[in-house]
Structure formats: structure tokens, C-alpha cells
Amino acid sequence: MNTSKVIAGVMKWGLWGSKFDTASYEQIIKESIHMGVTTFDHADIYGDYTTEEEFGHVLRKEPSLRQQMQLITKCGIRRPCVNRPQFKIKSYDTSFKHIIESVETSLENLSTDYIDALLIHRPDFIMNADEIAEAFAQLKQQGKVLHFGVSNFTPSQVALLNSRFKVEINQIQASVTYLQPFTDGTLDQCQELGVIPMAWSPLGGGNIFAATDDERILRITAVAEILAAKYQTSADVVLLSWLLQHPSKIIPVLGTSKPARIKAALDATELKMEREEWYMLWRASTGKEVA
Predict the structure, then answer these.
(1) Is residue 200 very low, low, confident or very high in pLDDT (cuts 50, 70, 90)?
(2) Looking at the predicted structure, is the pLDDT value of residue 207 above 80?
(3) Mean pLDDT calculated for residue range 222-243
(4) pLDDT tens-digit profile of 127-172?
């Protein structure tokens, strides 16, 4: 699947964050596309099942924008809220029926006749790999979904599904403060299978730049500031560049609603630090030299 160098995550654009109106959605969509950020990451549950539809209002108004972007969405979480009163508890559902129904709803809400990539949002502990494969095969045959992947899946869970169909994406938590994918086989598997790793919370949820007395965060920011001064940029650009240098070709999913932050993320794609500098940030995060 072809995507932009960084991905605009829309989770905080609506009810769960900035509470954009249609004009604000339109502005940030157009500014993002103008900058070259053409891939937008959704999930059915965002904004308590409202953000897809709010984004879709812009595409209803200007259908030509759809051909200038790629839409990713996710399904599989059943989240109780005022818009889903039939859900009694939070649970996971990767049944054939739920996947098909979720996609049909997303297509309607996003005002589009196809989704570029559909991801299973969380591992379902009773998921049936054959059933998921059947749903994906039908959606692809109908032209309603072009590419398929997962989010937050372990290497063994990816391997299971990849035995039934090609897993193209694994959207994972990864940052200088969350190193698990570097050590648990997730990013190794991405290189092995050609899976695209998309990193959510690529700056640790923004906590790196919050006032803190956390020694780990202070170590990371101290090194990031030194490198930012060397490369005449900002610390957030340095930390995104650190992710981008991994050979699995990580693509950051940005959680911002500010165009300036999107622009900074694009700057990170142009920065290439030295290998030893990469390990300076690793050491700052772990608090020790590599073995």
C-alpha cells in the first residue's frame, strides 16, 4: 500500500479532542494534503462513533478530495457509549458479521465507496483466523477494501493471520519511550514479511515535552536537545527521525490536530542522524549501555 511519509491520525479531531466543526475538518484536511500528508487514519470508535461521519461531511461537500487521499480505518472494538447502547460491556468482535457490518457503516459515514486499508483494531482473544480471512476476501472481491492489516498484534498473532491472507500493516505503539517492538520480534517480523509498521503515539503521547521530574524523560530530552542543536531543528523532529531510521520503515501516525506539528513531522523524514547518535537516544531511554 502506498501512503504518505507520515500519517495524519484523526482520533483527536472530533469529540475526543479538538471538537472540530466541518469547516475546521476541511481546513486541516486541505492543509495536510497540500503539505503532502495524504493518508488519514480513522477507527470506527473514534469520537464515540462520530469522527468518521464528521470527516465524511467534507467529502460529501467536495468529493474530489477523495481521490487525493488514502483512508485507513479500524474495526473490532465494541465500545459502550450513547451511540452504541446495545453494547453492554467493552469487548472485541472479529466475527465475519461484525467486520462486514462495520465496513458498511464506515463506508457510509466516510462518504466513500472504498477504504484503502482496513485494520483489526485489537487482538480478539477468540478470533477465528478463517472467519477474518473470509470477511477480508469478500470485501476485497467487492472492491470495498483494498488492503488489510492489524493493529496492536503480537508477532504470533500476525503470523496466524498471515497464514490465511497477506497481512500488510501492523499499527503498533512505538517511540523512544516505548521500546517493546524493537525487542519482542514485532519489527523483525515486519522486515521478514514485508509488513508496514505504523507507529501510534510516536512521541510518547506528548509526555516527553511535559514538565516532569522523571529521570528517564529528562535523559531523553537532554540528548534530543543536543541533537536538535546540532541539526538546527527541534527535539520532536529528532525523536521522530529516530523512529524513521529503523530499517522496517516505520511510518508515524500523528496524534496532533495542529498543522504546524504535521509540518514538523515531515521535516523529520529529511533528517538522518548518525548510528551512534541513534544509540545515544536508546541509552537515554533504557538508562544503560547496550550489552
Answers:
(1) very high
(2) no
(3) 97
(4) 999 999 999 999 999 999 999 999 999 999 999 999 999 999 999 9
Place of cell 477494501: 145
Name, in order, each residue with C-beta under 8 angstroms of 150's C-beta and a sequence gap of 6 or more.
119, 120, 123, 157, 158, 161, 167, 169, 170, 171
CA dihedral for 241, 235, 3, 37, sign (positive or negative): negative
- The answer to whether residue 283 sits within a structural domain is no
Domain extent at residue 134: 7-167
Count the neighbouring beta carbons within 10 Å of the beta carbon of residue 86. 6
46 catalytic? Reply is yes
In a domain, 82, yes or no: yes
Closest CA to 228 of 244, 240, 212: 240
Is 16 part of any domain? yes
Residue 21 within any structural domain of the chain: yes
- Tell me how far the alpha carbon of residue 216 is from its chain's centroid: 25
Identified catalytic residue from 46, 49, 92, 114: 46
What are the pLDDT digits (tens) for 82-110?
A: 999 999 999 999 999 999 999 999 999 99
The CATH number of whichever domain residue 53 belongs to comes to 3.20.20.100
